[in-house]
Design goal:
The protein is an alpha+beta fold and 154 residues long. The protein is built from five helices and four strands, in the order H-H-E-E-H-H-E-E-H. The chain is globular.
Amino acid sequence: MLRFMIGALLAATAASANAQTYGSPISLEQATRVMAAAEAEARKINLNLSLAVVDTGGHMVLFQRMDGAFFASAAVARDKAWSAAAYRRPGKAFEDRLATGGREIRILQLRGASPIDGGEPIVADGKVIGAIGVSGGSGEQDGQVAKAGAAALK
C-alpha cells in the first residue's frame, strides 16, 4: 500500500511538472507580434520600457529599449524573460510565493530565477515557445505589459 501511495504521489508530481512543456522555439515573426503588442500596451499606459523576447533556451530573439527607458532596465528585462522561459512560469508566481515568507525564501537560491512581476512565458498550442521580460515601470505595470505581449499569440 505504501509503495502504491508513493508511486501515485510521484506520478502526480511528474504529471503536474510536465503539464506545460516546451514546444518549438518562438520564430522571429511570432516574437515581432509579441513585441508589438507589448509596446502598444506600454504606450497605452504612457511608459517607456525595455522589452525582451527569448526562445525556449533563453536566447535573445528580439529586444527593444523604448526612448527614455533607463539603461539598467535592459538587463532586468532580459533576466525576467530568461527566468520565465527557464522555469516555465511568470516572475509573479515566484514573487507571490516569496511574499509568504518561511521556507519559500529558498526561491532566492534558484539560479537565474527572477521573482519579480514582468516576466511571462509565451505559450502556443499549450507549449512554452519562449518568454517576454519587461522592465522600467512598477512590477505591476511591467507585468501588465508582459501579459499583453504574451497574449498576442493566443
